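USER: Please consider what follows.
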Amino acid sequence: MKLKFWFIACISLVVLFSCDPQKEFEAYHSIQASGWNKDSLVTFSVDLENASGNHNLYINLRNSGDYEYSNVWLFVNIKSPDGSLLTDTVEFQLADPSGKWTGNGIGDLFDNQFEYKENVFFPVSGTYEFSIQQGMRSQLLKGIKDVGIRIEKRN
């Protein structure tokens, strides 16, 4: 009887914490084990047919402890369904000045969610293409394991 109770309690907690009413889209792409080549684009196609209201955009990065830098520069492009293009260059800090990783970590992996843009309105319904490219000086950037984006409805 106790086992059944704990099983139901665990399932209930999973369901409770997996609900995220603000999330409209979230996905990750894994980076090759050899590293993130400067010429490689990480691309996400996002269907925003009913994207009423404003949104917050996040860039998610997962790095290992052997990442050689404390920051990362990224080139971000957003192509709308009507063909218009928004291009940004952004910098995110992955470690504090003492060298401690800023993300939530388990073992040697650290997850970061960086606010990229807030209060964004998508004026055209359809499929938006988000592309992210590393902008560091190294041709091959080692230690970045996954790159993702998250789009949330703004309250």
